[in-house]
Design brief:
This protein is mainly alpha-helical and about 600 residues long. The protein folds into 3 domains: about 5-75, no CATH class; about 75-200 and about 205-420, Na+/H+ antiporter like fold; about 440-580, NAD(P)-binding Rossmann-like Domain (Rossmann fold, 3-Layer(aba) Sandwich). The protein contains 26 helices and 6 strands. A 6-stranded parallel sheet has the order 3-2-1-4-5-6, with helices on both faces. Helix 21 (about 460-470) links the parallel strand 1 (about 450-455) and strand 2.
Length: about 600
């Protein structure tokens, strides 16, 4: 009997599930992503829509019209592919964010994440219980809404250019702490499930709970210790050895192998999540001189598998929840996209960070993601929550992830609106911040003919070291309060604040300065800085660091100051070194 084309398609789909899964997943992601960008929506929305089609539309077609397509996606297989995406993306997070970076923002990231998580859990739980949900279900619901997705945050902050700034460091550090808190919640849920579900709670005991927590944190501590003691020496050395081999392919494989290998070992040996293990893998590779190359080599893989992750999120969505619980969906989205950003921004302002930084961090937290799915899935398996709650959380995740990139676009307009209101401006300006102005004890001679250095990290630090060696007075202006606190402890004159605002430069005494060195690559308004500096000190010399030729050309064309392009300065320095080396050899010969 001759096999029809449709029957052959059905047979092939069953035999090659991985290929079918990839073809449908990537094909629909491409199509829906193009449609989303055509209607001026983020491509991310298209990837989520592709998942909805795969999870809801294809099963309906396959059931009622089996000979039409005969295609289906293996959900479990797709989840594993998505897990690889989470691992690689978290590996990229670690590459951008070292342990030193976390320590630099610990004073805001640790208390901020703890307070924001606690407030969100309490508020969401109270709201749900007030509308007649059981307490156990309400608490798990609040837990799921309290934690944002690091994957989504990184993607959106990379697109806005904020990932390498102090705002990005705080936001990523904040979510790393949230992820650690989620690990605690995942440990607490099983022993607390009996009580949360309204039962007798036979499995709950103070001793058993303490033992479970001690065991979990002990494993995490051992894993982290091994990574810091052994991993920081072994894996950078391994990458260096592979790189010396000269094979592009081998180096690329070694980077991916380190990322997924450490993540898998963390899960298999220490019960640490894949995501957290991959994050530490990135932090370890960052210690290698080849970290930049490792990031570039792994970027295509991170992009590819992150698409599969977002498609997998869409597959979890049950469209019927929109009709069954529209009010609850609105309330849930409101908690995530309004409540959490307001709480996070308020915490940032209380810690005296600039309004722009507060709003940016708040925008980054206006979504939920992978850990929320894990929490509700565990709650469902323990009988604490109903299936509809899981669909509700997934629906909120899709909406918040899809709209999160748009939230970032409202940061600047919202900042202008707030500052245009005198009463609100006085509240957020925090004039009493002692780090926002220099102490009265600073001698006048140190604030006359000095250099104002904007940004202390990297290039700024080296300029400061040079000025100190030459005995030239200077003032550092940096948006990171922790950095300014440390500089003050070292006796360095420094002020904190948004360097794009006139007040920060005025507090750095720009009116008496001889030069202004803008060394930061943070998203700053150069026009505003130059305008303020030249109004207050027309003769001031302005030096600007640039990381791109296009930006350098614009700075020169607009006459904002003397520009130093990184690539050009490196080449000049290398040429000088070569000239000195060759001249030395010539004279020796």
């Amino acid at each position: 009997m001759v096999e029809t084309v449709a029957e052959a398609a059905v047979r092939s789909a069953g035999e090659f599930e991985l290929i079918t899964t990839l073809v449908l997943g990537l094909g629909l992601a491409l199509f829906c992503g193009l449609v989303a960008t055509k209607i001026r929506l983020p491509a991310l929305v298209g990837y989520l829509a592709a998942g909805i089609v795969i999870g809801s539309a294809l099963p309906f077609v396959a059931e009622h019209f089996p000979t039409l397509l005969g295609l289906k996606v293996d959900a479990e297989l797709f989840d594993q592919l998505a897990e690889i995406g989470v691992m690689l993306l978290m590996f990229g997070v670690g590459l951008h964010f070292s342990f030193k970076d976390l320590m630099a923002v610990r004073k805001i990231a640790v208390p901020g994440a703890i307070v924001q998580t606690a407030v969100t859990i309490c508020a969401a739980s109270a709201l749900a219980h007030s509308l007649h949900w059981p307490w156990g279900q309400s608490v798990v619901y609040g837990m799921a809404l309290s934690v944002a997705s690091t994957v989504v945050l990184i993607r959106n902050m990379e697109s806005t250019g904020d990932i390498a700034t102090i705002k990005g460091q705080i936001a990523v550090g904040w979510l790393v702490v949230e992820d650690l808190l989620t690990v605690v919640l995942l440990v607490l849920l099983p022993p607390l499930s009996g009580w949360l579900a309204g039962g007798s709670g036979e499995s709950l005991g103070a001793g058993a709970l303490a033992l479970a927590l001690l065991k979990t944190f002990g494993k995490i501590a051992v894993f982290v210790g091994l990574m810091l003691v052994i991993g920081t020496r072994t894996f950078p050395w391994l990458l260096w050895r592979v790189a010396r081999n000269g094979s592009h392919e081998l180096f690329m494989i070694s980077v991916i192998a380190v990322a997924v290998g450490i993540a898998y070992a963390a899960y298999a040996l220490f019960d640490v999540s894949f995501a957290l293990g991959a994050f530490f893998a990135g932090m370890i590779v960052k210690e290698s001189p080849l970290a930049t190359r490792a990031g570039q080599e792994s970027q295509p893989f991170r992009d590819l598998f992150s698409i599969l992750f977002f498609v997998s999120v869409g597959m979890l969505f049950d469209p019927r929840v929109l009709l069954k619980e529209p009010l609850w969906l609105l309330l849930t989205v409101g908690v995530v996209m309004v409540g959490k950003p307001v709480v996070a921004s308020a915490i940032m302002l209380v810690f005296r960070y600039p309004l722009n930084a507060a709003l940016t961090v708040g925008a980054g937290l206006a979504q939920i993601g992978e850990f929320s799915f894990i929490l509700v899935a565990l709650g469902k398996s323990l009988g604490v929550i109903e299936p509809d709650v899981q669909s509700l959380v997934v629906a909120c995740a899709i909406l918040s992830i899809g709209l999160n990139s748009l939230v970032f676009r409202f940061v600047t307009p919202l900042q202008r609106r707030i500052l245009s209101n005198p009463m609100l401006a006085r509240i957020v300006d925090r004039p009493a911040d002692p780090l926002a102005q220099l102490p009265a004890s600073v001698p006048h001679r140190a604030l006359t003919g000095h250099v104002v250095v904007v940004g202390y990290a990297g290039v700024g630090r080296r300029i400061v070291e040079y000025l100190q060696h030459e005995g030239i007075p200077f003032v550092v202006a940096d948006s990171n309060r922790t950095v300014v606190e440390q500089l003050r402890e070292q006796g360095v004159h420094a002020v904190t604040g948004n360097v794009s605002e006139a007040g920060t430069l005025i507090q750095a005494h720009i009116a008496q300065a001889a030069a202004l060195a803008v060394t930061t690559t943070d998203a700053i308004d150069l026009h505003r800085i130059v305008e303020v500096a030249r109004i207050l000190r027309p003769s001031v010399r302005i030096l600007i660091r640039s990381t791109s030729a296009e930006e350098a050309d614009r700075i020169v064309a607009e006459g904002m100051g003397t520009v130093f392009l990184e690539e050009q300065e490196i080449s000049v320095a290398m040429c000088r070194a070569l000239d000195a080396e060759l001249r030395g050899k010539g004279s020796a010969g």
